[in-house]
Model the fold of this input.
Amino acid sequence: MTGTHSRRALGIALSALIAAVGFSALAAPAAAATAESCTRTLPTGTSTLSVPFGGGSYDVRVHVPAAAAAGALPLVLDLHGSNSNGTVQAGISGLSTVADAEGFIVVNPSGAIGAPSFAQTLPEGNWGWNVPGVPLTSGTFPPAGSRDDVAFLSAVVEAVDAQGCVEDGAVFATGFSGGGRMASALACARADLFAAVAPVAGLRAGRADTAAPATIEAGSCAPSQPVAVQSFHGTADAVNPYPGNTDPRWGYSVATAGAGWAALDGCDAAPVTTPVTTTVSRIAFPGCEGGSDVEYYEITGGGHTWPGTSVDLETLGLGVVDRSITASTLMWDFFAAHARVAAAPEPTTPPAPSAPAQPPVDAPVTTAPQRELAATGPETADAAWLALAAMIIGASAVVAVRRRTA
Done:
């Protein structure tokens, strides 16, 4: 076949292909909607999900908002403090109520370190987290063979995603006290999974250096990418003191932890302090990389407590609960502002013609793509037609395989 006849045949074939692709796209809208929508099998409200891990399984408390929207939802891990459990923490944070109003999933797993490290006095047990390389509140290290909680909590996210449709780039973690230290460890080790964390009375930026507890052990927190960090801490916290202590479980101050995360996230300016209420100030580090932010709320006179909780933590001897702010609503606003959005693929541009020729006066009228193809010669034109066809097929394939909507 001559180049002219070849191009004419390819043009006819391409026209037929375009018509076929267009027809198939229009003829099966129901299939496309199904492919782009995930199916949530978790019930709305509070339920228990069994998560297999390490040859066993663990029951995890999950709350799906009562009026859950179709499609994927953000996920917040809410981690209890040492000597507690997931159900107790759900009551302290009240995040299930926020989830119902704002539309996200809350998960309250429990640690696996129990007796003899923690006496069993609560109906669902007293547990602690295996924070990597850090002693328990008893001063001893977790027993040999203790569950790897970084790996376990990552598995919890996967299990909830499989049945609950978790939005890509919208996985977050918070925690109280020891749960806050565990959430901090997740930010260090799984920055690829957790877009933001918001520890309460437990922010860390790596382990305390055993030789110099007022400093962070070099290399003990090495996130693979920036993580947005928010925290809340009372200046009268007697358990995890605001100015720090010499306990290797805690060590350096909250200010050092905030500055540590500012360095890890590449924030480029000194912190800015803004009064929020008469007892609360917000210390924020501007100019952080990757759209992250680092900020912490300093609660003057606040104890080892969760700001705004409805639970009477004062009677437990944990100090003053500041109720001029509500940590749970502030952290959700922070999480919602720091979901990671996948970058859109760059468009593919066909090569420009090397030497466009002016058509004669009596030449037939052609479209812009046809003029570009005609200017490149028969063989190149044929290849360009085929490339354009491949682009159309590829575009339709991308639409067909999209797994879910935002």
Q: What stands out?
A: The chain is about 30% helix and 15% strand. Residues 65 and 99 are 6 Å apart (CA to CA). The chain has two domains: 3-35+355-401, 45-337. The beta strands are 45-53, 56-64, 73-79, 105-108, 166-176, 196-200, 228-234, 272-275, 280-285, 294-299.
